[in-house]
Amino acid sequence: MDAPIITSLEIHQYEYSLKDLGKDYNGFNLVYTPGNSQKMGGCVIRILTDKDITGEYATGGIADLSTIPMFWHYLKGKPALQRERIYDDVKRALRQVARMGLAQVDTALWDIAGKYYNAPVHELLGGYKTSLPCYASTYHGDENGGLDCPEAYADFAVRCKEIGYPAFKIHGWGNATVKKEIANIHAVREAVGTDMDLMIDPACELTTFGDALKVGWACDEAKFFWYEDPFRDGGISQFAHRKLRQLIKTPLLQTEHVRSLEPHIDFVIAEATDFVRGDVGYDGITGVMKLAHAAESLGIDIEFHGANPAIRQCMASVRNTNYYEMGLVHPSAPISHAPDLYLDYDDSLEAVDSNGHIPVPKGPGIGVEINWDWVNANRTNLIVYE
């Protein structure tokens, strides 16, 4: 069969609600809020071709796809298997608009390639892993009887360890004192012992470099595996994180908030991080695989952000990575994404096996099917480019 040619593109917007969730003190972070119903949204992008092959990828809100009108004219009529050419050309074209939309198009094109060759993406990438170890990645702390104190985090970490998770990551409180964050670090370590990897991600909530330093010293004492996005620089200051690395021992995990290969590696070369963060939703499969191999050439690891089938496909193809991020999870709240979006697929607290692993999907392309009955029932808008 000849290579498929791109003919049209669809964006299916949908909304749904998650029970017992709300927003924290400033209306940004999701937190446990018993009795509340939090409206959520997302999109599925579909790239149609002149063959009976369609690429699909589920992503966040419409903002993630905001630049597609700028480059649809370029995509139309292109061979769908020319992912490298498309990635390179669109990356240049979108250099002043954060390249938003490129990742989603690229991942849908990989889905087409897998379906064209009747193989999961990880096989096209040379992947070999059949399962992936996970860490439990918590919601932010709340004041509502959920993760509302260090003891609650400690109890939840023990529960996750009993389920089988080999690692646990804390997202602390949005407006907590440094003293409370430090108490949380020590409480969780004391509860789980020394045979569970622990991480912390303040999500850039700590107010000052000094606050980040104090929390870092506590991580040193508790022997945390990594320390991620500490303070209000937004996770992008190479100088500040180099200084932080000089003053603490806990490895830093940075670069979630920069896009494309070069700024990620600039961060590493500047000695501003120890692990590299990669995200299929920000840089596509093509972009994160470039980053994974670049990190490998420097002898360091890439840690993938978030949970979805495309991330599993990439991780199965990468030696230098440690854990799949199962999140966001909570002892009482539901998982932080649409539970019915896929068929025969599960990202949830209880999805891991007794060793804390999840399987790599084996279907063609991204490996799993979108639940179109659910998407159509919850769809709020359809945008078509022809």
The quaternary structure here is: single chain
Q: Specify the CATH architecture of the largest domain.
A: Alpha-Beta Barrel
Order of helices and strands: EEEHHHHEHEHEHEHEHEHEHEEEEHE
The dominant shape is globular
Cα distance spanning the termini: 23 Å
| CATH homolog superfamily of the largest domain | Enolase-like C-terminal domain
Number of domains: 2
Tally the beta strands: 15
What is the fold-level CATH name, i.e. the topology of the largest domain? TIM Barrel
Radius of gyration (CA) equals 21 Å
The total count of helices amounts to 12
What is the topological layout?
Layout: E1 6-23, E2 30-49, E3 54-59, H1 68-75, H2 83-93, H3 102-117, H4 121-124, E4 131-138, H5 150-163, E5 167-170, H6 178-192, E6 197-200, H7 209-222, E7 226-228, H8 238-247, E8 252-254, H9 261-269, E9 275-278, H10 280-297, E10 302-304, H11 309-315, E11 324-329, E12 342-343, E13 357-359, E14 369-370, H12 372-378, E15 379-385
Helix pairs in contact: 2-3, 3-10, 5-6, 6-7
Can you describe what's shown?
49% of the residues are buried. The protein has 386 residues and is α/β, with parallel strands linked by helices. The two termini are 23 Å apart. The chain folds into 2 domains: 127 residues, Enolase-like, domain 1 (2-Layer Sandwich); 236 residues, TIM Barrel.
